[in-house]
Amino acid sequence: MSAIKNFIFRRRGRDGGWHWTDIVTWVWLIGGTILMFGPALWLVSSSFKGPAQLAEFPPTLLPYVQEVATVEGHDAPLPLFEATMEDGTTRILAEIRRIGTSAQMVDPADPGERISVRLTDRTPLREVGLAVDNYVDPFLSFDFMRYLGNSVFVTMAATFLTLLTNSMAAYALSKYRFRGRDAVMLLIIGTLMVPLSVILVPLYSVVSAVGLLNSLWGVILPTIATPTGVFLLRQYMLTIPDELIEAARMDHASEWQIYWRIILPLAAPALAVLAIFSVVWRWNDFLWPLIVLSRRELYTLQIGLNTYAGELNVQWHYILAMTVVTMIPVVLVFIFLQRFITTGIAGAGIK
Amino acid sequence: MGRIALEGIRKSFGTVDVIHGIDLEIGEGELVVFVGPSGCGKSTLLRLIAGLDQPTSGKIEIDGVDVTRKGAADRGLAMVFQSYALYPHMTVRQNLSFGLENARMPKAEIDQRVEEAARMLDIGELLTRRPTQLSGGQRQRVAIGRAIVRNPTAFLLDEPLSNLDAELRGTMRAELAALHARLATTMIYVTHDQIEAMTLADRIVVLRKGRIEQVDTPLNLYNRPQNLFVAGFIGAPNMNFFVTEAKSGRAALPGGAEVVLDHAGPVTIGIRPQHLRLAQDSERAIAAKVHLVEALGAETVVHASAEGAGSILTVLEGQPLIERGAEIRLAFDDENIHAFDADGQRIG
Amino acid sequence: MARFGETVGRVATLPLVLIARAFDPVLRLWQRGTGTGGMVAFFLLPNMAIFGVFVIIPLVLNFVYSLTGGTNILLGDRSFIGFGQYGRLLECGNYLQPLTCREDQFWTAVRNTSLFVLFQVSLMVCVSMITALILNRNIAGRGFFRAVFFFPVLLSPVVVGLIWRWILQRQGLMNLIVTNLGFDPVVWLNDRFFAFAAAIGVSTWAHMGFYTLILLAGLQAIPKDLYEAAEMDATPPARVFWRITLPLLGPNLAVVLVLALIRGVQIFDEAYVLTGGGPGTSTLFLTQYIYEVGFASFLRNPGLAAAASILMGLVLVVLTLIQLGLSRRAERGNTR
Fold this sequence. Notes:
The structure holds 3 protein chains of 3 kinds. By secondary structure, chain A is an alpha+beta fold. Chain A has 3 domains: 2-46; 68-124, SH3 type barrels; 142-348, MetI-like fold, CATH 1.10.3720.10. Chain A is built from 15 helices and 8 strands. Chain A has helices spanning 2-8, 20-47, 51-54, 133-141, 144-175, 181-191, 200-209, 216-224, 227-237, 242-250, 255-266, 268-284, 287-292, 301-310, 316-348; strands at residues 64-66, 68-69, 78-84, 90-99, 102-107, 110-118, 122-124, 126-128. In chain A, a hairpin with a 2-residue loop joins strand 5 (102-107) and strand 6 (110-118). In chain A, helix 12 (268-284) runs antiparallel to helix 15 (316-348). The longest helix of chain A is centred in the last third of the chain and has 33 residues, at 316-348. Chain A is elongated. Chain B folds into 2 domains: 4-230, 3-Layer(aba) Sandwich (Rossmann fold), CATH 3.40.50.300; 237-340, CATH 2.40.50.140. The mean pLDDT of chain B is 88. Chain B is built from 8 helices and 20 strands. In chain B, strand 17 and strand 18 (310-317) form a beta hairpin. Chain B has a 6-stranded mixed sheet, sandwiched between helices. The model of chain C has no long low-confidence stretch (mean pLDDT 82). The two termini of chain C are 38 Å apart. Chain C is 76% helix and 1% strand. Chains A and C meet through helix 2, helix 5, helix 6, helix 7 and helix 8 of A and helix 1, helix 3, helix 4, helix 5 and helix 6 of C.
């Protein structure tokens, strides 16, 4: 037991005491963990709260839902309140409707009698529970499902095409000697310096000229030829021995066959890293889709979400739930593939 | 099948000339070894024959057909690479059958050929493994197997044993010799290891700086090297050379010994260390002083130096008693003398 | 288990394999006809075509746009006006007071972006340096904590913006904390100062994990025996940091600094979702200015946006050149 404790709290202090750096370390790490995960957890917790609860201050940590009861004579279940009567006693009552500053209520045990209670004299009865409607409604009644579909399509298509075109170019640039190879490399390195925000206007007019405005392909195509991807793959392919390619040539393989039967399988680790990055990038893309897509039915999740959040009457209970849904793929990537990414970044310094 | 002819082959990379015009005929079923120091162009020459590189000028013929402009796949040759170049993501079976599949061979025939090669090389149990799960010797066999299944007109082997340890190398060398005897297919073998060259070759091609120095059988190379380079390159330890002057049919060696020579002018006399022996009293001999004695049991290597001739290496049989600092006299027979003129060409 | 994964992988890629195989005869013919050169062209073509159309051409067109006037985005309908757009951007009474400039919004954006970069980059470098140093210690669960700090890096800017908008709203978590500490609640994003600070804090929160990783990689590349030698010499820890860690980490630190600068200059997404540039123009940054002038505002002016983006591009080119030089040095340093 003490071995475990010693392992967990390895310290600098020689006599087993706490050196100040040990304290700083653990405060920083635990504080950091709260700060990094806390906001996301708060989002998830909030996303299960109903609109009424979201408007309250101070907010509660956990989501609660109003307790309801089915009362004879009423089709829908009625919300339950704890009402303070004029004589000072409290009773559990169900609300039928509100009239002005008072509510017409009924005792579930005695559905015949109607009681009028002032709004200030009652508090809602609540239990910890999830307002699942926040999630169900956007899928059923908004265009959320369509946005989700658009995002999935953009991400999948862009990632597939990125892997294909980048790996082909990287293969040519790493395994063939030809005139102008250095010029092509220089061109690619050069455009590492050209972020989207610098060519916004002309790119828009190019996309419009080729008729891709308001088309998901207009979002996909400009993102495919990423210099970073070509770079990363080429760097990896340089480590594949040329003799393998020569052996394949002696083995009657065509150049295309060498590409997809020798090079692609051997470059799988680099392809995996690029695939993960591409999925995250394309899923998260914001500015460019925002410019290309002006028809609502073409919006991706990010654009749809931003539009909802920008509306005059912000419906936070829906937005929070949709934000959580938008976050899910990235969280899955994080949980399962985090190790790949972190080593990928440490190795190549890309993002 | 399997005659290969090179005609005036030249190759340059950019401005650097690597091969300076090579003519060579390789007969059917012959095992020819290319040797030479590193950078002599032996691997480049092999790659030109394979079709992996294109010669700058010259012609390559296989069985009378000009293949100079044909790609590697269309020459009907198979190659064993120095690193073996086994496809790491394929099993041994897939490695062997990859080339046959590419040639659109029926599956039944592919299987039959793979089984046959596996039996021949004793790698039957390894067929489902990946190259990373094999030992060096096993990889070597698979690499050879991959060449065999193709049933090529000739095998090209680029330093195939250089990645093995000494003991395994000996075994594999013997197996390669047996394999060549059995298949009777032309083989071109590149190595920098003399022992491999001497033991395996029907003929050895000695290369230096992109030129052929001599082409001959192993023993002819040893017994009658055509120039100083070959004389110094073949045989271990290296031949002793004495630079001297030939006058009126004689050349003097350090210590007064003279050899009869039908030549006038500066000459280099070469004597292999194995061909020197301790002189009897009155015998013609080279006088030298001993620096170092290495007793190896079966033989004894003596490092000595003679006045005006630098160091002399002698390999003596058995375990003669010689001490450091001793003065010794080394005798030799006339038939073991190699003489070279000022241009390094053999005299006589 | 490995075999199972392999089978799954094979089944998943089967359609692709079939497609690739179907292509083979055609490409063999192509290869026979055009040789290896033709194949190189074939491999390069898709990437370079997309590259040319969507990167190179826009890059050239950008200059053309910046020299034309009018509100129409189609080049044919635009008139050549020379350097008028640049003149308009640069016309200013006093550059330190954006309101005296003709394009006051542009200069507000420039000022905001400069301040943002100054504070955000300093904060970012400090925070990620400390985190990297701590993660480099011999602590339990190092992999876990490294992942913790990396988590926000993967989140989309929209999600990041919305999460923090939710926390900083009137009835949000932040005000709960503030009131519990005995202060009055604040409407954070309606306050010029706090909104700006929030933009800095949130973008640091979102990206620090990335820079921490780079620094951590640099720290781990420092040979352990150097520290042991220093310990044998009884070097005080602070001196070890200043004389060993920092100099050897130098190249990585420089890369982090310049990368953070480059990204900072381009700040848009999360700040836009968080504050929308407000209140007023207090968090209006350059990219948002370009976006709004080019596309979103009522009287859009693509030429002006192009001119502004070229000015921003110049700054980025300089920064990137520095970065390329530095990362080459870092690479050498890491392999040493």
